[in-house]
Amino acid sequence: AVWSVLALHIVGVLPDVIDYLEGEAVVIGRQRISLWLILQALFWCLSTLLVALWAGSAIEARLLRAETLHSSLRVVLARLAKALLVLIAVLIVLPLAGIDLTVLSVFGGALGVGLGFGLQKIASNYVCGFIILLDRSMQLGDMITVDNFHGKLTQITTRYVVVHTLDGREAM
Question: How many Å apart are CA 172 and CA 162, to the nearest integer?
Answer without folding.
Answer: 5
